[in-house]
Amino acid sequence: MRIVIADDNTIVREGLASLLQGRGHEIVAAVGDGAAVLPALASEHVDVVVMDIRMPPTHTDEGVRAAVALKAARPEVGVLLFSQYAEVRWARTLLDVASVGVGYLLKDRVAEVATFIESLQQVAAGNVVLDPEVAAALVQAPRPLRDRLDRLTARETDVLRLMAEGRSNAAIAEMLFLSGGTVEKHVTAVFAKLGLEATTADHRRVLAVLRFLSA
Question: Is CATH 1.10.10.10 what the domain over 143-214 is classified as, yes or no?
């Protein structure tokens, strides 16, 4: 296989490259952020990209966004999200845009070398591979509420998480290095996506937090 690795952790990136090269696979490029992936594929034949989810600059969803862009531009290239975290929304985001040649594996699985390489080969061949923990989380997540929460952007989710911690808009703005007006726009978007209309009977901020915690 011809492989591109995208991970900002140098040890992980170089370790994967060494492991795969030692088993006869070719590393076309090993990069430290999602934005460098498409340029690396511009003039190369690549079978599969191993993509970390959280990379610079915000360490939130750069890998997922890069994976979505990659599948739109080069649908024939397999993409394996490779993360420490089993997050349903990222799995759904990828599966919503691509039904072939995608996967989501937890980094713990790299210890099982044969399983990891088999997963890469499956994704490169156009199949879908999900880590058992990710698959279980997808099955167990309540759909109606999860669907609404999955519509939130990474930044809106950050804002809602801090709301759940009891932070004021001013505190959220300071913690996320945003303006007060930007935070207010994110909060308004959260209310809209969760279906919380303004009424005199309900406190939308409390309801939004309760929905977040219940999910």
Answer: yes
